[in-house]
Each structure stands twice: as C-alpha cells, then as structure tokens.
Amino acid sequence: MPDKLQTFQTIKQAIDQADEILLIAHQKPDGDTLGANLAMANWLRDIGKHFHIYCLHPVPQHLRYLPLWEHILYTDEEIAHIPFDLIIFIDSSSLSYAGIGPLLEKIKGEPILINIDHHPTNPNFAKINLVEPTASSASELIYQFFESQQIQITRDMATCILTGILTDTGGFSNLATTQASMEIAGKLLGYGAKFRTITNFTVRNKTVNTLKLWGRALDRLTRHEDGVVSTVITQNDLLECEATKDDLEGIANFLNALQDAKIVMVLKEDPAGFVKVSLRTTQEGVDVSALAQKFGGGGHKKAAGFSVPGKLIHTPKGWRIEGV
Amino acid sequence: MPDKLQTFQTIKQAIDQADEILLIAHQKPDGDTLGANLAMANWLRDIGKHFHIYCLHPVPQHLRYLPLWEHILYTDEEIAHIPFDLIIFIDSSSLSYAGIGPLLEKIKGEPILINIDHHPTNPNFAKINLVEPTASSASELIYQFFESQQIQITRDMATCILTGILTDTGGFSNLATTQASMEIAGKLLGYGAKFRTITNFTVRNKTVNTLKLWGRALDRLTRHEDGVVSTVITQNDLLECEATKDDLEGIANFLNALQDAKIVMVLKEDPAGFVKVSLRTTQEGVDVSALAQKFGGGGHKKAAGFSVPGKLIHTPKGWRIEGV
C-alpha cells in the first residue's frame, strides 16, 4: 500500500491533470462531508479548475454559512451531461452511502475515482484511496492534503475544515478528539477561520421552540433496569411546541451527557405511522448498531437507529408503541 | 512594566528561593482556578517543595478527579501557624475574591505575594503580577510558565491544565477560545492529559434527575418582547425531580445555545425566602452585569446575577415573584 504522502501526491497530480472534476458529499450531509468538500471546492475555485459538487440531499439550515454551499447541486440533470475525468468522494464510507448510484451511470466519459475518508469500514472502493481511520474527520485529511502539498489555506478553506473537525468531534468532546485535531484547529484559527460564525450556526442554533420541545423529552426521561434511559416525542408535542422534526436533531446526542445511562433511546413518532428509534451510547464495550440491526436498522457502534410501525401511546404504566 | 518572560523568570526564582509556599484557589472554585493551582501543586510536589493549597470552599464533585485535589485545605487552622515566605494567587481577580482575608492576617512571616491571573479587572494586587487578559484561562498562563522555564509537563500536570482551558472556554465554544488555547490543548493531549476522564467529569456528568429538572426549565421558557428569554425553577421542582440546587449548575450556560435570545434569565427559588436570578448573554454589545448591578448584584459582562426577596408564584398571566 502506498504511504499517505505518496497518495496525497497522486491525488494532487490527478487534480492537476483533470479538466472536469466532480466532488461528492455523502447523502444526509453533515458538517464534515460538507466542510471537507467545500474546503476542496474553495481551493479548486481559487486555482481556476472546472468543478461541480453533488449531494443527494440539501444542505441543512445550520450549515448554510459554509463558503460556496450554494454551489452544491442536488439533481442529476445539471451534471449528467458533463464529461468528468475525475470524481472525488470525501467522507463517504461506501459508494452506496455516497448516494449517487443513478448519477454515476449517466456520467459521460470514464472518470478516475478518488476516495478520501476516515471511516474504518470503508472498502477502498475507488482507484485512488486515502482511508485513514485515525483521523478525527475527513476535513482533517483535507487539511493534511493541503499542508503536504504546500497549498495556502485561505480563511474560507479554514472555516470549512474547522467546521468538519468541530462537528465530528462533537465540539471537541468525543473520542475522535486527538492531539492532531486540536492542534490543527488551533492553526485553522490562525488562518482566520470564522470561529464565531461556526459556533453561532452549529452550537448556538436553538430556538425557544426547539428547547421547549427538548424540555418535554427531558421531562419524560425514564430509567429502565438494564441501564437503558428512554424518552418519547409525539406528533402532538411538535404541534403544541410549534416545532418541526428538524428541532429534534441533536437531542439524542445531547443525552450522551447522561452519566448514568448505558444506552440512550429516543422514540419519535412519525406522521407516516411509524416510530423512529435513535440509539446512543458512550460506553466502550457497547455496540448499539447490533441492537438496531435486530430491528432492521443500522448505524455506527456509538450511534444507530431503526423504525417500527405504530404510534406512541401514554398508558398508566408509561409510554408504549401501539401497532397500527 | 516587565515583560512576560521576565516575570515568569522572577516567579521561578521566587519559587526556587522559597521554603514554604501557599497556593490560593479563589472562592467558589471552578475548573480553571483548581486546574491551574493543582498543575502548579503537582510540579511543586515533583521538585520536593514544601507547599499547601487553600480554598475557602470545597472542590465541587465534578472536579474531584484532578490530581492532588484531596490535598486542598479549607480551614485556616491547619495553615495559620506556618511561616510562609511565598503566597501564589492563581485565577483570583482581586485579593478579596480570593476569599482569604482572615487567613492572611493570621499568617506568620512576611510572605511575598504573586498574582497570576487572566481577568482584565485584576488590579495587580501583589508584589509580582502576571495579569494577561488575552489568555483563555489562568491554566493557559501556567502552561506558558512551565514552557518558558523548560519544565517537563507530566500527565497529571497536563490533565490539570487542560481542565482549566476546557472549562473556561466552555468546551472550546465561547469567545475565550483562541488559536493558542487550541494549540496548547493539542500539546497537552500529547503529554497524556486524561481527556476521557475530563469530559466524563465535566461534560458527561448529568444524571437522569438533573436532566428531568432541566426539562422543566426548558418547557417553561418564555420569550418577552425585549428579547429576554426567561424560565423558572421552584423548590417544588427540586422535590418532584429528586434533585438538588447543584443540579441547576450549568442550565443558564446551556441556554446560551438559544439563537433568538438577547438575554437569558433563569429564576431559581431559594428555601431561605428569596429568588436568585442568573443572567447570560452571548451578544457583543450587551452587558448583563450592568443590569445585575441595578438589583444589587454583580458579575461579568456575559454572565451575572442578583437576588430578590420573595418566592415564585404561577399565575394565569405567567410566573411572577411574590414578596414575602
């Protein structure tokens, strides 16, 4: 296997030689895939390369400050006719997770595929693979790429990369936080990364209605004998708090602050007649994806989920799921 | 005014020449004053110096992992008879805030006073003063001191310093977060700082009962016309959630996550017949300490508080304070 520096050089050469580049952010995009792809996009723009960025789903509201985010395309039509000679996947743990199956088939030409990722399960699906599970984030790898190639990191590139590192480390609180990620974050502040904007959008992004809804979820926390702590949110709660399901984003992660829970389980009623269950754990030996798989779901060891048909009913014995 | 390096050398010389050293953490101790003082204590122990550490109030539960925390003394009696020749105040914004007035009078000998702090209001109350308002924390200054004097930072010292930086920057989220604080945090991880322990104690430290109580506070959030968002917690809430007033620590800071609040106001009923009001803001031009002063309270620009006699009553028009 080629070493990292060699792979960075190969990637740089492939970009230098390419005339039409497609960057791919994974479906249901988060701060890391968008930060990493947009850092790359900002550099490609600065050096005058032709490029497009594709994502199956739109950029979430709380990440609509990343430089060039409006540049991201969501429909195949706009790019299917372009003869790409290079496609770079950043932060996609697999080709299918990238969510571009139908698009790939339509693309003209025979593009070289590059795969830059930090997920340990990545099967090295591309021609050129840089998969580094010790990195906090794909954004950290993009930083290393820029640094290794003596590419000047601009304020916009720094803002993108820091967003990726900050969100994937849970604001420098989860186990992905390493010496390298912290030191790079410091350097990115030195390059002028807009830290205040990042925290305003990614941390200070709750409304009164969101937190009223969270309040209901917290008020209903229930400790079960097996160390599971659960809570529920119904469609009626959304109505009464004048909130949307987007306002529930982050509540399961927030509950990781619990010291006395082995597994945190958040049950959310969906209007389509099922209940979505989010599972989280911070405990070393616990794998919630195994639990999710038993119910037909999936995810990561520390964060997973599944859905069951039914709705949430409050009974004298507590909340339960009633089949529909 | 002597430069920083010169002052660090003066401090080092004073420590070298001292036979009995007293370290002072400020009253109502937080992660920074304890982290900074205990980093210094661990080094003094390593080099075989005679020293004591004093604090007016006990170490809070969530900081009882800091190496040597059990070494801290709370009563004057144990140290009043010792002929100290050096007293080092770390993170005390004034001599009175240190909370050692009566103790100072009892101390035998004529100690030299050293004042290491990062609060801009510090009046340079000691003989040797190192007051650096650009530092994220007093702990960052202790790091700089060690580095400037080529002192080897052990794992225990690193754990103490990182605790101070992490807590004073709000987990690397508030405006105290700088390039230097991030880069130093990275280096401290390199020195083996026990990051997992720090986050387990300072972030993942909520119980189900604590969060049920927080849930009540969130559920009652009320937006007022002037951009103030308020909430209330009564003595009855503590009873029903089987929680204590310690469980309310952090709720006002957590509410800084609100994007649509100019000022956050948390009203807590005290059994002694008054209501404690905590004020927070993240807005550049807002000074909540000025508001607190109008009601006989005080604090910082971004975090302040006051108390009024009375208790909290729920009326059809909302919550209000009723005089007693």
Secondary-structure blueprint of this entry?
Two copies of one chain form a homodimer.
Chain A: H1 4-17, E1 20-25, H2 31-46, E2 50-54, E3 72-73, H3 77-80, E4 86-90, H4 95-98, H5 101-106, E5 112-117, E6 128-131, H6 138-148, H7 155-168, H8 179-190, H9 195-202, H10 208-219, E7 222-223, E8 228-233, H11 235-240, H12 251-254, E9 263-270, E10 274-280, H13 288-294, E11 298-299, E12 303-309, E13 311-315, E14 318-322
Parallel strand pairs in A: 1-2, 1-4, 2-3, 4-5, 5-6, 8-9
Antiparallel strand pairs in A: 7-8, 9-10, 10-12, 11-12, 13-14
Helix pairs in contact in A: 2-6, 2-7, 6-7, 7-8
- How much of the sequence lies in strands of chain A comes to 15-25%
**N- to C-terminal separation of chain A?**
53 Å
Main beta sheet of chain A: strand number and arrangement? Answer: 6 strands, parallel
- Roughly what is the average pLDDT of chain A, rounded to an integer? 93
Poorly predicted segments of chain A:
none
| Morphology of chain A | globular
Could you estimate the helical fraction of the residues of chain A in percent? Answer: 25-40%
Order of helices and strands of chain A: HEHEEHEHHEEHHHHHEEHHEEHEEEE
Spatial ordering of strands, largest sheet of chain A: 3-2-1-4-5-6
**By helix and strand content of chain A, what is the structural category?**
alpha/beta
Describe the structure.
The structure is a homodimer of 324-residue chains. With 324 residues, the first copy, chain A, is an alpha/beta fold. Chain A has two domains: 199 residues, inorganic pyrophosphatase (n-terminal core); 114 residues, Diaminopimelate Epimerase, Chain A, domain 1, CATH 3.10.310. Helices cover 36% and strands 22% of the residues of chain A. In chain A, the strands form three sheets. Chain A has a six-stranded parallel β-sheet with strand order 3-2-1-4-5-6. A six-stranded mixed β-sheet of chain A has the order 7-8-9-10-12-11, sandwiched between helices. A two-stranded antiparallel sheet of chain A has the order 13-14. In chain A, a hairpin with a 3-residue loop joins strand 9 and strand 10. In chain A, helix 2 runs antiparallel to helix 7, helix 6 runs antiparallel to helix 7 and helix 7 runs antiparallel to helix 8. The radius of gyration of chain A is 21 Å and the shape is globular. The mean pLDDT of chain A is 93. Chains A and B meet through helix 8, helix 9 and helix 10 of A and helix 8, helix 9, helix 10 and strand 7 of B. Chains A, B: One of its GO terms (molecular function) is nucleic acid binding.
